[in-house]
User: Fold this.
Amino acid sequence: MAHLLHRLGAFAVRRRRTVLVGWLLALTLLGGLAMGLKGTFSSEFSIPGTESQRAAELVSERIPGANPDAASGRVVFEVPAGTTLRTAERKAAVQETVAALGTVATVASVTDPYAARTLSPDGRIAYTDLGLTVGPQEVTATQTDAIAAATEAARQAGIRIEYGGVAAPVESEQPTGEVLGVVVALVVLAVTFGSLLAAGLPLLTGVLGVALGSLGITLASGFTDLTDTSLTLALMLGLAVGIDYTLFILSRHRTQVRDGMTIEASLAKAVGTAGSAVVFAGATVVIALVALVVTGVPFLAQMGVAAAATVAVAVLLSLTFVPALLAAAGHRAVRGKVFSHDLHDAEAGEKPTMGARWIALVIRHRWLAIGGVTVALLALAAPALTMRLGLPDDGTAAPATTQRQAYDLLATGFGPGFNGPLTVVADLEGVADPQRAADTTAARLSKLANVATVAPPFLDDNKDLAIITVIPGSGPSAAATKDLVTAIRSDAPAIQEQTGARLAVTGQTATNIDISQKMSDALVPYLAVVVGLAVLLLLLAFRSVLVPLTAIAGFLLTIAASFGVVTLVFQDGVLASLFGVAQTGPLISLLPILIIGVIFGLAMDYQVFLVSRMHEEVSHGATPRDAVRDGFRHSARVVTAAGLIMISVFSGFILPHDPIIKSIGLAFAAGILIDAFLVRMTLIPALMAVLDHRAWWLPRWLDRILPHVDIEGAALETDTTAEPRPLVGASA
Assistant:
């Protein structure tokens, strides 16, 4: 692979103008296609095959015109204590508002609180349900502004108005966090390289990779349904790895030029050596993300594939666009600091750098480092033992938002379970007396624990389907509500035997429960796939049994600690105000699987870049302990910079108000902080020092059957062929 990448790097140097123009043309073409063929992104999550999804499909099939995917909203009315909405003046204002809401474009249906009897017992709170003709992702700010304008009559009458569901105002959020993350990354790169030009090159590559990936995903949205989280995850990862992969190649190139190599020879060799590690690291990220397909969750698989494609683009850019750009920049790109000074300064007898002092301290106190890091990470992981999973709804919105205000008003007026009704669908096909079967079913459901109310059954025109609304006595995310769903499903066979009705539970609350359960069930199999993949890849890369095992142990500690951190902040509320978490609650159900997939890929990046340099030193004759020390010195600064950049990029996503994006940003930032600095730069070197020569042990039978993967580019050390042509005008 090293020879192939060497030739690719040499080609990019020779044909640098062609390569640069080719990538820019690809960006332009993809941009035009994306703008012309793009579709819309959804914020809804569903999993085909679950009971709730099958029930929703049955309703859509049996009731013509029913659209389970159509958006719905709610307008809530409230008057102060001691007054009521039943007075003639306020009733007229509410009914005028209802009539005005019915004239809003895309509003298909509006309920009258007085006719539908949707007033609270004390008459202070009422609501009207809105049915729209479009999906949730198609609701625009213009439509929600029109809904708000239609409620003016009620406001003028002194009635408080709040909005739930898609009736809430659509607010566009500026990408402040993302921009801040890029700015911090630029500062880190400038300090690391001591050159603004060198600092700007990784950023340029990262931004170009994200642009290509985002446009590709936007184009794909015109042909398949994608969630908006797919784009966010691709943006996060694409920017982070695009910067990091460029950083690894650029740092090797600058070191080689400072050691006397020509620009053209250095670039080809950097792509052959550091580029080999980039390909291997990128492949681990891509495979980990694509492996999300094994979860059996379509939207999660789409997120993984979209992010994996963006990472693949980042790898291709680092192998072609980066050497071409560096060739055009010539010696201007190698001015400033060089990473290898850590080692050279120590050899020259100068004051050791911080990296040199740190690795010396870790090796000298290796047992303390192993014990201290392990205990600290296990302590961080402890809160994960009580981790609960769910999906966000209006009840998890910030207390000051209108969605949350509407949610709280409805809970006050109609009970906590009103916000999470369960829709029980009874398939009555072939039942002799459908009405009696439906009534008997409703009566039996009303006797279950934690049932507040059961609405009279609604039968379709053919009398072969009944819909029974069950209001729990607890809120949508409460454990008691989940227990009620389980109780209904457990009682379904007995009800079928008694009445002939075949029951299924659906509705948003049941759907959320099913999705969370599906995610929980997929967690262990996915973790097993990722761990097995890591062992295989690292075994191939380093031809060692114990190196993969230490890497996996560190990875599992990182994952557990990351789970603990997000549980502590988003569920338990510790330091919630510091991170802008306005409402605590269950973690978003897809978060644990995303943490495993993404952190695994990035952790393997650091493992490869750190341990490959140690392996390189061993292959050149260094003792195992000297290899740990010198390999760390070679790579410490670049891995530190890479870790800080990723933390900066991910931390930028903590600033938005969206709880999903915020929790993902914190989980990834904390995971990288833990893995880069505690695990890869402390625990792993300490373990390698303890294992000594045993770290590189490989049974002879395994050595014979394993293919040789030269990720350090050692074969290039003795091969002087395929030298690229000298650059024109590459003088300082």
